[in-house]
Amino acid sequence: MNFKGTLLIVILIFALSCKNKSVVEEKPLARVHNKFLYKSEMKSLFNSTISKEDSIVVARNYINDWIKKQLLVQKAELNLNEESKDIEKQIEDYRSSLLIFKYKQELIKQKLDTVITSEEIENYYNEYSGNFILNFNIVKALYLKISKEAPGIDKIKRWYKSTDAEDLSRLEDYCYQYATKYDDFNNSWIPFNNLLIEIPTNIGDQERYLKYNTYIETEDDLYYYFVKINEFSLKSTIQPLEYAKSKIKSILLNKRKFTFLEELENSVYNDALNHNEFVIY
Question: What phi and psi values does residue 177 have, to the nearest 5 degrees?
Answer without folding.
Answer: -90, -40
